Every structure is written in structure tokens, then in C-alpha cells.
């Protein structure tokens, strides 16, 4: 299993993944915090998947959503679930949409990339950010590689050391608002919230 296997895997398992995806919206507290920090409601969702529950919740909060996913089968479901949203079939790596957003999400998506590709993502975040753009993303709690399982398929995960993530944020114009490893209020997710050009 390699990082490059992720998109074909999610292409194959999209409908099963969507059917069994947790819909309790345990992410709500972090989404609300991100919206409270963001200067507006224009949202870029990187690795948007089927659009439920996160995309649909944000749409209920009057967000204008652009969903990006490299797995075409996920984009089909995203379009079905959020017909008013914009859907872009693209790999998040090296993405160049030529516009900026108020909120950028990479929830349970960036950590499927190799460590070098994750390092490069922070320039991609910055290229789509303006003053006070907020980013919300998940990682592992410590540096290392791991393997998970989705619909019977093995999936790759990797994380950098938290201090390296913090440094990459700073180098690309973001300051950390909050970092909670293994957040017990969010099903054990390790969550980062940061803001572009935020005054210290």
C-alpha cells in the first residue's frame, strides 16, 4: 500500500464508505469554531468525499462550498448530495484554482498523503488564502506512518511531528489558533485550527 493508491481505493469504495460514514457530526464543534474565525462563508473542502455530513452541515450554515476530490466516484456522490455546491475533480496536490477562500478544510484527507506531499500542501493552502482565511485539518498526533481499513481495503496514513506542522504553518503565513491531539470530544481526532495573516 502506497500513498498513490489512495485515490483508486476511494474510487472503488465510495458508495460503501458513504453508506457507513458516521453521520453524528462529531466534528460540529470544530466546524463551528472555524466558521467563527473565518471572515466569510466561501469554503474550499479538500478531499470533500460524498459531502455528508460535513458539506451538508456547512451548506446549512449558509456556506458557498467548493468540493475538491481526486476520486471521481466521490465527486458523483458529492454532486448528488450537494447539487448547489461546486464540485472539482482534482488532486489536492498542486491544486491551483486561482482564487481564495474564507475557510479551507482538509478533514481526514491530507493525512493520506506522503510526508513530502503534506509538506507541499501548506503552500497550496497559502495560495488559496487571503487575510484571516481559516484552515481546519486533521493529522496524526505524532510523526510516523500507519495503515487503516476502509470497506475492507487497506489505506495509508502518515503524519509529521506536530512541531513541524506548526513550523510549516508559520512559514506559509499561518498562525496556529489551536491544536488538540486525540481530541476526546471529536472521536479521538487530532485537529489543527489556524489562520492566515493572524496577528500574534
UniProtKB/TrEMBL annotation:
Annotated organism of origin: Maritimibacter harenae
Record bears the keyword Cytoplasm: no
Keyword Transferase applies: yes
Family matches, as Pfam families: Methyltransf_25
Keyword line: Methyltransferase, Transferase
Domain Methyltransferase: 43-127
Record-level GO BP terms: methylation
Any one GO molecular-function label of the UniProt entry: methyltransferase activity
InterPro entries xref list: Methyltransf_25, SAM-dependent_MTases_sf
Record protein name field: Methyltransferase domain-containing protein
